[in-house]
Amino acid sequence: MTLLSIRNLEVHYGDLIGVADVSLDVAEGEVVALLGSNGAGKTTTLNAVAGLIPASGGSITFAGERIDGKPAYAVVSRRIGLSPEGWRLFVGQSVENNLMLGATPLADRSRAAPLLERVYAIFPRLAERRLQLAGTMSGGERQMLAVGRALMSDPRLLMLDEPSLGLAPATVEIMYETLERLHGEGLTILLAEQSVELALEFADRAYVLQVGRTVMSGTASDLADDPEVQKVYLGMG
Amino acid sequence: MKKLLWPGITAVLLLAYPLVFTTPFQQRLGALVLLYAIAASAWNIVGGYAGQISVGHVVFFGCGAYASLALFTHTGLPPVLGMPLGIAAAVGIAAIIGTPTLRLSGHYFSMATIAVAELARLVTTNTEFLGAAVGLSGPTVPRTWLDLSFISSVPYYYLFLAVLVITLGITWWMERSRIGFYLRAIRDSEKAARSLGARAPRVKLIAYLLSAGLTSVAGSLYALMFQFVDPESGLGILISVKMLIMAALGGAGLLFGPLVGAAILVPLEEISNSLLGGRGAGLTFVLYGAIIVLIARFRPDGILGLFQSARKAPEKHDA
């Protein structure tokens, strides 16, 4: 069943075009990767789904319901979690406060405590540092916190913007192992990733974005073998 | 117990001040410190906790001062009764200007607030009902005790102290409420807070309205003590700047920051005024400019920030 469906999405920043024509589908339980170089429109697409920036054209449908034009708080309460680019943590607050802020959209507050336990079980490092200020943590820990915070809203769809950016290779590996496990538990994931190799290894399917348009799509293994991907995407060949 | 030590010492010092320092100059100085501490604490709610640097808060100060004295001028009622009118006007104006301007971020918000404040000053200067450029005065001789007109500054001192305690109480309560929690999140990263479902515009507006109402109270208290307001003393941009600097110097976003800032700046200004007299009037601006530079360069988190840097992580909350 299709969980998220984007059709001909258009986003403008004033006169600038952020995204010109993006269409994609994410099925329930699937991992989908958005590939593309800087400025291709990956972050813009994720932010538009999250309701952080308004779409100027096209449609975004989640679980059979149009969500484009809905404000961010309405989108996130439909259980779409975003771990934003650059983490955007509340650096002056403790790890635990950051996580609890992630529970904002929960209608039933009593669910926050078990979710917190779950996030601590997924990222034991965060449990060790629960009273530490977010701004004093390493890059890998910050990434864990950003993902953990998104998980606090108990999302059906988890969107990750560049989960490997700026992290040490060993940390990236731990991150992806964790994501793999969450996927195994049935979580649907849409991620933007610059590291093609990593993304194609992890994802079921992928879309390639180029100057704000979806130019190619396919299963991860097909794309990984396709020389065209290397050309469009890495500018090789 | 340790948590109550500093607030306790501060309370004792504040209560005892007029008994220890008995000259009229010192007592007036004490009252002024408290008055500005109220205004700066009110500013702190939106400027410090929410991180929305308003440079137009004098509009709300003016609401309070003008409501009190306009009520007296036109109806003869005691100025203190104008206080609720001032609060209503301030909250109303804040709702009107806050809804569009709080969508602006960073210095664009600051610039918009300056524009609104200057507009208010110019309109008032040309409004006969509000005394135009001449200003409005309070009762020349007190008619009843309700006029709250005293020769000594001591009654004002204790009145202002009571209002300051209420203001800080409200701030303290807000700091611990869900709203305060979101305000700090918005200050750290508005986009992240929004992506988590915090209704940032609404939370900021609530803080702005609360801050405006309390600033208006400070304006009314000013009118009670000085019995006079004109466009410069009630709506001049320097008052906005003072609120901002006092909060920033003491520690913006900290409960007692504005009080510390006021306790340093008000005496400094009074002393420099009395030393320099009329010739040095413009030097106050120079002084403020220098302080802004020094804070920005050396202590962006204010004087109290020095003591707070070793502070423990915030305690577990109950969301």
TrEMBL record, chain A:
Pfam families: ABC_tran. Keywords: Amino-acid transport, ATP-binding, Nucleotide-binding, Transport. One of its GO terms (biological process) is L-amino acid transport. Residues 4-236 form the ABC transporter domain. GO terms for molecular function: ATP binding; ATP hydrolysis activity; branched-chain amino acid transmembrane transporter activity. It comes from the Bacteria. Coiled coil: none annotated. Belongs to the ABC transporter superfamily. This is Amino acid/amide ABC transporter ATP-binding protein 2 (HAAT family). The lineage of its organism: Bacteria, Pseudomonadati, Pseudomonadota, Alphaproteobacteria, Hyphomicrobiales.
UniProtKB/TrEMBL annotation, chain B:
The chain crosses the membrane at residues 28-46, 58-77, 83-102, 156-174, 205-224, 244-268, 280-298. One of its GO terms (cellular component) is plasma membrane. Its main location: membrane. It holds the Pfam family BPD_transp_2. Keywords: Cell membrane, Membrane, Transmembrane, Transmembrane helix. It is a multi-pass membrane protein. One of its GO terms (molecular function) is branched-chain amino acid transmembrane transporter activity. It is found in: Cell membrane. InterPro entries: ABC_transp_permease (IPR001851), LivM-like (IPR043428). It comes from the Bacteria. PANTHER family: HIGH-AFFINITY BRANCHED-CHAIN AMINO ACID TRANSPORT PROTEIN BRAE (PTHR30482:SF10), HIGH-AFFINITY BRANCHED-CHAIN AMINO ACID TRANSPORT SYSTEM PERMEASE (PTHR30482). This is Amino acid/amide ABC transporter membrane protein 2 (HAAT family). It comes from Enterovirga rhinocerotis.
